[in-house]
Amino acid sequence: MIKDEDSSPLPAFVIRADIEEQRKDFSPLFTKAQSDLSMKVYLRAAAIYNCRVFRNYRENFISVKVEKPNVMDKNSDEAIALNEFCLENGVELHPEKKNLIYRIRRT
């Protein structure tokens, strides 16, 4: 399982194939409501942040990764509204050094 495209020595097409395989393996573990919620978070994040945004299925959660968001974007009214939406819907926010990761846990 590949965790980060930038840190992997493998070509991008191999990484994307691995991610697609994970999606096929893990997506049946989640309810339609959880998948729909992850898509809402993904679409909102993609509209707000001027950077790459990924939605990945993991064994225990669905992650929406915002890769290296701009500081101005992180402090925008839209980003604050997204964070409030996530709090209301039980989506966890895990800020890292350079990335933001939203997680929808499997129930």
List keywords for this structure.
single chain; 107 residues; alpha+beta; Heat Shock Protein 90; four-stranded antiparallel sheet; 4 strands
Mean pLDDT: 85
Give the full name of the CATH homologous superfamily: Histidine kinase-like ATPase, C-terminal domain
User: What is the gyration radius calculated from CA atoms?
Assistant: 14 Å
The helical percent reads 40-55%
Which stretches are poorly predicted, pLDDT < 50 over at least 5 residues?
Answer: none
What is the domain total for the residues? 1
* CATH architecture field: 2-Layer Sandwich
Could you describe the largest sheet, including whether it forms a barrel?
A: 4 strands, antiparallel
Structure annotation, total helices: 4
Q: Which structural category do the helix and sheet elements fall into? A: alpha+beta
